[in-house]
Amino acid sequence: MKLSQFNFNLPDELIAKYPSKERDESKLMVVHRDTGKIEHRIFKELIHFFDEGDVMIFNNTKVFPARLYGKKEKTGARIEVFMLRELNRRSRLWDVLVDPARKIRVGNKLYFNYPDGTEALVAEVIDNTTSRGRTVRFLFDGTDEEFNETVFKLGKTPLPRYIKRDPEDSDKDRYQTIYAKELGAVAAPTAGLHFSTELMKRLELLGVNFAELTLHIGLGTFRPIEVEDLSKHKMDAEYFKIPEEAVNVVNSSKLGKKKVCSIGTTSMRSVESSVSAEGLLKSAEGWTNKFIYPPYDFNIANSLVTNFHLPKSSLFIMICAFAGYDLMMEAYKEAIKEKYRFYSYGDAMLIL
User: Fold this and answer.
1) Which DSSP string corresponds to 51-103?
2) How confident is the model over 280-321, as pLDDT tens digits?
3) Does domain 67-155 match CATH 1.10.600.10?
4) CB atoms within 10 A of CB 75
5) Averaged over 222-245, what is the pLDDT?
6) CATH assignment, 3-63+173-351
7) Whole-angstrom Cα distance, residue 331 to residue 341?
8) What are 2's strand-pairing partners?
């Protein structure tokens, strides 16, 4: 299939700027692949579609406040530094994006201060990677924990540009799942943002099992696809880890013919990156650049919770592979008609 087939007209006002008042009270569209039926629900009603022994696969990555603002040495020019990925913990080497990039050269130092003006962090540019990309070394003498604390104090929640507003204090909590543990993402696994403590408890009491894996989401997930031939598109590699404990829980439900529900496209990409010869999930740790597009035979999950995605995005293309192109185009047409909210802070879809 071609990229242009995944285009649709999305009104700007349907891109959510803020989350729903309560996590589990966003709208939920339920799409039944076997019949083509579409239901309109509230997210907390998700529980009505699951039974004892089913399993939900959660991505427990934790977003760090990746957007820093510093000053260039000598000139004092204000520079935005977006922390992409850690390259070496001991040396505190990071891949970053800088803006404006034309002002930043190898050898430059950038200074990051607390609001009271005291110096908190210094970064030295040691390499150019892309037109906006740089490798920097953070000069910091404290422990890893102290470094993370400093970044959390200095950094801003990395809301996607599409949201078109500055981050607020409430975003520190709401742009993070309630089960986030493993620090390393620059974007939230947004399907998980709808789960409240109460809903998780109700699912647990029902007998639904939870399996946790980690995939640290990078900006590459949201990078526009620039080739018409989807087979030519290359995803950026992202770190993932599937522990043995998750493998056992997922395979038990799969072998028992129960629902195996991926909470989000990042969980789906993770499990599809580690499939055994028998078609079961296997433990893994490493990097994945898997790009899923139609036609594709899914191995692990047989249901999916996901947000509403942007036209021609890798995320929308993946769910078309999972649910079927015609059914998803119809569902999205219905979502726009019913004014569902799109993107990171938007509403959700359950595909059965």
Assistant:
1) -TT-EEEEE-EEE---EEEEEETTT--EEEEEEEEEEETTTTEEEEEEESGGG
2) 999 999 999 999 999 999 999 999 999 999 999 999 999 999
3) no
4) 10
5) 93
6) 3.40.1780.10
7) 13
8) 229
Task: Enter the tokens of residue 155.
Answer: 């950094």
Q: What is the pLDDT of residue 89?
A: 84
pLDDT, tens digit, for every residue of 55-68? 999 999 999 898 99
pLDDT in tens, 128-171: 887 788 999 999 888 988 998 999 999 999 998 889 898 999 99
**Under a CB-based contact definition with an 8 Å cutoff, are residues 125 and 107 in contact?**
yes
Backbone angles phi, psi at 102, to 5 degrees: -65, -20
CA pseudo-torsion sign 42, 335, 263, 52: positive
Average pLDDT, the chain: 94
The residues facing 83 across adjacent strands are 96
User: What's the whole-model pTM score?
Assistant: 0.92
Tokens of 307: 């947000």
Is 67-155 the same fold as 3-63+173-351? no
Tell me how far CA of residue 306 lies from CA of 87, 151, 247, 348, in angstroms: 30, 30, 21, 6
The residue ranges of every structural domain in the chain are 3-63+173-351, 67-155
Q: Does residue 48 sit in helix, strand or coil?
A: helix
- Site of tokens 């899923």: 292
